[in-house]
């Protein structure tokens, strides 16, 4: 990002130390411009989920600053933070749907930050919100399932509902925590493609915590690697070579991984 460009998200010196004394993040600094889709990779325990949750303060940082669109999130009061969270859509690995509610009811819960208590209690949402929910469900291929209970859906369908719910907040930033971890390879690719396409269509930035290196390299414009709570790699997908993977994950024969990435790219070009 150019030096004089204004980032959508500016993280500076972010550190998280738990009461046990363990450091989950150490002096993490990142600047994410508007519209950029960034993949966050690294071994288990590297601090990826903690970083995402520190951004929206589901986890309270120990020090450092998080600024979203010029507003310092780390200094906000509880009420101000609730309002600021409208601009950050969260997509979870385990979907976080209310199983007994319908698809439409789960989707409309994305508007709770804008709706008064009693209106939300009785599920009385403005007509424009219901219409937008139908439009988004149609976009992800689930309009015909609006009245289905969430527990009747497949994993891929549940994740699509979670994506639509996040978009109903009208966010500027998506925080996506391992969206493909519970999905088969084909569905994983479909979900990643959908997230990227929706970000492009709506001008959204996204931070996607993901374990699958091949998916990260295929779909993200920028990859950040964490190891032991520190950034050890930050670059484009084409620069994620064996040396970079070693700095992120440690010593290993990465030739098969690199070969798999190159093969998938060749196959995609052939199909196209």
UniProtKB/TrEMBL annotation:
Coiled coil: none annotated. One of its GO terms (molecular function) is ATP binding. Pfam families: ABC_tran (PF00005). InterPro entries: AAA+_ATPase, ABC_transporter-like_ATP-bd, ABC_transporter-like_CS, ABC_transpr_PhnC, MetN_ABC_transporter-like, P-loop_NTPase. Residues 9-253 form the ABC transporter domain. GO terms for cellular component: membrane. The keyword Repressor does not apply. PROSITE patterns: ABC_TRANSPORTER_1, ABC_TRANSPORTER_2. The keyword DNA repair does not apply. Keywords: ATP-binding, Cell membrane, Membrane, Nucleotide-binding, Translocase, Transport. It comes from the Bacteria. NCBIfam families: ABC_phnC. This is Phosphonate transport system ATP-binding protein. It comes from Roseococcus suduntuyensis. The lineage of its organism: Bacteria, Pseudomonadati, Pseudomonadota, Alphaproteobacteria, Acetobacterales.
